[in-house]
Amino acid sequence: MTTYAPTPASVSKPPGPFLEFWRSFSVNKGALGGLIVIALIILVAIFADVLAPHSPIDQDRAAFLVPPFWQAGGTLAYPLGTDDIGRDILSRLIYGARLSLFIGVIVVTLSLAMGLLLGLAAGFFGGLVDTVVMRLLDIMLALPSLLLAIVVVAILGPGLVNAMIAVSIVTLPHYSRLMRAAVLSQIRRPYVTASRVAGAGTLRLMFATILPNCMAPLIVQATLGFSSAILDAAALGFLGLGAQPPTPEWGTMLASSLQFLQRAWWVVTFPGLAILVTVLAFNLLGDGLRDALDPRLKR
């Protein structure tokens, strides 16, 4: 009986890292749906100038509290109706998507950068550095996050920039503690010892050797941090401490329309749905990334 060795063309190549990640990620239909929703929101934010039928701050004094087009008295000129001073709700929602994504990017970038440095230093140096950093973070975690954000904004003053700084400070401990735990799990590994013996300096050990192997949990946390940042910024806007009118921010839209809840449901419902859908999409995406990046959770 003659046997034939497989030709190189018949030997299947192992999937690349990206393909393997995508296979694990696409199994989670909820995460895939979240990714699609986030992609649509990003497209809406990028092309807001084209998609929005009106300016988000223009007022039509003849169209106060116009209902959505499918209700009596509604018009296609204002598909989702208008608010109490005649501004188009759909246009404000579209421009609010751009602002919410901008808030998420800035908050996650600031908190991730600061948390990465603090957690990396605490885990790598240990001793007094670790004790001081972790006790400061424990004090921050002992306070309710929204209360701490309100205190920071009260000190800095109300406004969108100060609200983003406050939310960044509030979410900082989560990144720092996660980074410290990842560093402690890697610092005793043989590859770190080999790099140290080979003469690698402190900065090279920290940023070139250890840091790349600690990024997977941080990527997941950053994705979930988007939803937290949007939600906290909306909460501050709702309390009048975040973006100030007439900025089209979803939380500010909710705060300015509560008094019309019973007579004009659309001025409250649509901004609330926008926050709900966006936060839910980022949470689903974060869960999918966690399942795909953690080998213990792969199916």
UniProtKB/TrEMBL annotation:
Keyword annotations: Cell inner membrane, Cell membrane, Membrane, Peptide transport, Protein transport, Transmembrane, Transmembrane helix, Transport
Membrane topology note: Multi-pass membrane protein
Entry-linked InterPro entries: BP-dependent_transpt_permease, MetI-like, MetI-like_sf, OppC_N
Transmembrane segments: 31-52, 99-126, 146-172, 218-243, 264-285
One of the protein's GO biological processes: protein transport
Superkingdom of the source species: Bacteria
Subcellular location per the Swiss-Prot or TrEMBL entry: Cell inner membrane; Cell membrane
Keyword Cell inner membrane found: yes
Residues of the ABC transmembrane type-1 domain: 97-286
Keyword Protein biosynthesis part of the UniProt annotation: no
GO cellular component: plasma membrane
CDD domains documented for this protein: TM_PBP2 (cd06261)
A molecular function (GO) term: dipeptide transmembrane transporter activity
Pfam families (alphabetical): BPD_transp_1, OppC_N
Family statement drawn from the similarity comment of this UniProt entry: Belongs to the binding-protein-dependent transport system permease family. OppBC subfamily.
The protein, known as: Dipeptide ABC transporter permease DppC
Species of origin: Inquilinus limosus
